Amino acid sequence: MPAALKIDLITLFPGMVSGFLAESMIGRGIERGILDIKVHNLRDWTNDKHHITDDRPFGGGAGMLLKPEPLFEAIEYLHTPECSVIFLTPDGEPLNRSFSRQLAAKKRHLILISGHYEGIDQRVRDNLVDYEVSIGDYVLTNGTLAAAVLIDSVCRHVPEVLGEEKSLTQDSFADNLLSFPQYTRPAEYRGMCVPEVLLSGHHEEIEQWRKERSLEKTRIRRPDLLNKKEPQS
Ligand code: ADE
């Protein structure tokens, strides 16, 4: 049976994600054939003896850009009729739960491009890229870890990757609220007690308490979420 989701990641630093792909739920998803994730070294698509992938920007300025030729050749090689190409870049659209869920639900094949240096030649972005995605308002040394974040956030929405479906519905952001506090045994530890209501077995009261705590936390930390019309779930 083909994998539920195929992902090809193009990077200059394949070693940065090898541990990540071998561990935990993503590792198990790959092992069980639900996920097919391959990491490709961009240098494999260079034709010169030094395997050069970058060059200076026309018009001057600091830093180096990834050249168009290896990226065009890599993407054309990996392309399939159903694939979407995503470029990880700090000037992309902010990644959120809703986008990750949609990718998991609607896409069967993703090609991820991780940038380096000051970015990539604009012709790649204009002609080959479907989505440009940022994982936050900070700049990483390259996009490989950003690609790992995107892979993780998408793959956990692929059915069967996460064991328990419930753990998705209780996610932070699932209904535009941050998650409520959680406790496990022991009920008392070093004099710190679990809130009484959680031990009561009273499901409605527990739900009510959780909703209130979620609202309170969201109001303090992320009031912007409360004004959103569209739920992210
Ligand atoms: N590459 C470097 N910084 C990044 C960011 N914040 N998001 C996505 N890709 C990046």
User: So how many helices?
Assistant: 10
Top CATH class of the largest domain: Alpha Beta
The pLDDT mean sits at 95
**Assembly level:** single chain
End-to-end separation: 29 Å
* CATH fold call of the largest domain: Alpha/beta knot
Question: Care to count the β-strands?
Answer: 9
Domains, number: 2
- Compressed to H and E, one letter per element, the order equals EHHEEEHEHEHEHHEEHHH
CATH superfamily of the largest domain: SPOUT methyltransferase, trefoil knot domain
Instruction: Give the neighbour order of strands across the main sheet.
Output: 2-1-6-5-7
Q: Which hetero ligands occur in this complex?
A: adenine
Largest sheet: 5 strands, parallel
Identify the overall geometry. elongated
Helix content: 25-40%
Structural class: alpha/beta
Proportion of residues in β-strands: 15-25%
Low-confidence stretches: none
CATH architecture descriptor of the largest domain: 3-Layer(aba) Sandwich
Radius of gyration: 21 Å
